[in-house]
Amino acid sequence: MTAMNDSKKIALPSQKKSSGFEEKRKILFLILLTVGLVATLLPFIFMVLTAFKTNTETLRVPPTFFPQNPTLDNFKKIFSDPNLPLLRFYGNSLFVAGFNVTMTLLTSSLLGYLFAKFEFKGKRILFGWFLVMMMIPSHITMIPSYLILAKIGLINSLWGLIIFSAVDAFGIFMIRQFCETFPNDLLDAGRIDGASEWQIYWRLVIPQLGAPMATLGLLSFMGNWNAYLWPMIVLQKNEVRTLPIILTWFNSTHTGQGGLIAAATVLIVLPVLFVLVFFQRWIVKGFVTSGLK
Amino acid sequence: MNIKTYRLLFVFVVLSLTFASCTAPSQPTPADDAKVTLRFWTHTNNAFNAGYDALIKSYQDEHPNVTIQRESFDYELYLQNLQTAMPAKEEADILQIFGTWTSQYYERLAPMPAEIMTLDEAENQFYSAPIGGFTVNGQLYGLPQEFNTEYGGVLVNKTMFEAAGVVYPPVWKTMDDVIADAVKLEANDSSGMMSVAGFHFTAADPLSFSFLAGIKQRGGDYWNADRTGFTFNTPEAKAQLEFYMDAVQKGVVDPVVFNDTTNFVIDAFFTNKVAIGYIGTWAIAEGLTNFPDFSDEWGYFFLPPIQGEPVFVADSGWGLAVSPNSKHQDVAWDFVKYVTTVTANAESFNIASGTIPALKEVAKSAKIDEEMPWVGEALGTLPYGEYLGNMPDRDLVIYEIIYPHLLNALQGVETVDEALEAINTEANSTF
Amino acid sequence: MTQSVKNKNFSTSGLTKSKNRFVSQIVIPLLIYNSLGIFILGWAFILMFYNYSPGRLGGPILGLGGSNPFIGLGNFSEMFQGISVKSRLFLVSLKNTLVFAFAVLPLNLVLTLTLAYLLEEIGSKFKALYRAIYFLPVLMSSVGVAIIWLSMYDPQAGWINAIVRFFGGQPVAWLSDPRAGFLGVSVALWAVILAYLWQDYGYNMVIFIAALQSIPQDLKDAALIDGATPWQTFRLITIQLIKPTFLFVSVMTMLSSFQVFDIIQVMTNGGPGNKTQVLMLDIYKNAFRYQNMGWAAAESFVLFLIIMAITLFQMRVLRTDWEY
User: Fold this and answer.
1) What integer pLDDT is reported at residue C49 of this predicted model?
2) Which of C154, C171, C291 sits opposite B191 (nearest CB)?
3) What domains sit in chain B, N to C, each tagged with a CATH number?
4) Which chains sit next to B, with 3 or more Cβ pairs under 8 A?
């Protein structure tokens, strides 16, 4: 202990010069990063300010930064327009995201556990199949999936966004990785105590999966909340649509309603901001583990 | 779980899926024959749908046993929705159809019963351009409600005219007069970017339809003699495109800054960036609603022909058709007749939706003239309207072939000859 | 007592039995679900040999045949002839997609690695805050991002041209001028690339940060003591050690940029003059706007082949120290 402290003290004078250099370097880096920060934030600020401008002001040349006559009309219009039941769109988005997240968590944990801890005939083939599914881009299956939905009458139904999303190959891999570290003794102890396999899964395995499940859940939620192409294809009626499609609908059918569109964008991004503020650590960690699997 | 079981399962699923696809969902048949419920699909347009709802109500009052449930879809998705519903036989009983679509879907639409209206009767009562869209091989498949014209009309900013010392209301004998006025009206900002377009004619519909009209007015045609192919590499087409090139050269519009996607006519006109804006009358209601603080004075005027008679091509218009899968086709047709041919009803619909009537009698009515004075001005040219013609894929031809190549030429990306040659080749490849 | 004895007797045969039951209870429904996947893949594969449109009546099985005729490799041979409008748009989309992906990849890697490195070097006081803010666009709906950038690129009322004017520059119609180009690539495509980078960089940055954190400090210190400059340390130690991450990140970035859709569809819808038309957009338009689903399926297959080829190539090149 003391020796270490001493060595630190001894080292100090010789490092003083380089630490001054270090300081300068840090400040330079900080400046560079702050420039990047401003570039990241400015578009958001534009958007928020635009939400309080009239449509005419949004097209003024040169553009105004702060709203000249700040108005809440855009928000009022969004909430009062009977053709735009915004709460309903939130509901739709939440329903789809919630359902898909639950399904993904359930199937990923079950299958991840299965692949990690059980031996059965055809396991390799099945596992290989999921590997293949992970490599196949979704655009390949888009057209037949759509035709199937049309045949079974699930176009314009939120279930159309759900039936093809029940199993997520990526989630299976992630959970399997995690389950492999489980001690077999623990599971066997449960078996000896007379627990059924389902009870073991539910009472012993699931509680251990808190961290990866939270991460997977958040990733899946964000993916579903922001999904655009597939919902746009499946949901052709206003009242069943999810939020991102409503945004483009605004953009295409409400000519020149810059303020209104910005207000709608703000309202749609708000939940994401909440998610970021409260779950920042989880998300960042999640992206990292998913990235380095 | 061996491979054999796997295969069995696979076969089972494939079979069940194929089976599911074969059994069409059965339509609920009303227990009481007197009670009739009809489904009615339209595209989302508040003005149109207000017109429909009023007529549905009055029809239901007259026929208490009939209930009509209207449902609407956004324009871009309505077509897609029809295309998926029709094969599954799930479409509504009454369908709002854009005339030009008929030639693609007539196999899936109910032919007009002769007791409702014969083709001769229809041609007498309706203008030829709108009724043409609902006719395929001499058979009617529906009736039009409006005369859709993207050609000929412009929004004019009176305040700008007066500020620039240009005579208002405009006196335009020829298209050259229009260009001459527009040159006086355009303005650039200090950096040289066009800030006010004198004459914005470069949006997709105005440019494409005035191009087709110009070919006709110059005595040419874009169809070959037996209508089996297109001819866009004609001297008339070339002269028409060169006319636009010349207008751009004179600076009436910068097609890079003003076109269909950037500074669309409605946005730009109602934010004082356009003096003369080429657009259909439907734009008026939309512009005034979206830009309540637009304070300039304005008017709506019609352009003179490029030469000769004011012949133009029109895209038919919205109208109604009936599904062949409907359990109550007779009632559905009765409703269609009620809405489209009873003069007072057609009139109230046109006023509610702000559209030009398809019925000749309604177009000349005093009430229309009072509510929509610009219809009276257009009245003289309406009989010159010809139907666009049944194309294999109308949207592809207009929006992916004609308009993009014309704009390319105006923006200097292609030469006139290259553009016309490309239009000709590509349009003919759609057959 | 008796209970546990019973269980012990049970364990040899009973345990495997219950295990097997558990496995089959999961695997059987899964197989049914997977056969749906196989069915879909098979359908996707067959479709590309047909001139198929769902609006037409077609034959009895899946609407194939009849008025939706089998044309063999017809779609593919038409694609590369360049005569029809479909073929012209396909070739343009193919070119734009390649340009887009190969422009995004290096820009993204340089940007994200630099930011990650800088963030790691500054004090921890700011690190969390900066990282969170940089990450914000990743979580945002790409549609929202596209709408924001759309308004910023407006030639007259947009902020970007306002800034250009402020510095006395010549304003540009960023998203609507098909003539304007930079390095042989349309300005509109660059504009879209910029918006795409803005939305995307937080993701790779965070992954790089994690990789950088996993490098032992001793190693870098040792190099510095040996007289290596920070740049040399970065190049010789940091880069070498994060190579697996580098591979992963570049494959993922490439994959997603080949499938770019949302941002382009909202910002330009392929314009001006098809300068930003990319394959996913062309596939979408052909399948769902013009209902040429056979053609769209063929295009999807071409895109799939390209993605596969490039992924395999990248794996090969960067494989050296790759461990799973």
Assistant:
1) 96
2) C171
3) 36-148+315-387 (3.40.190.10), 153-314+391-428 (3.40.190.10)
4) A, C
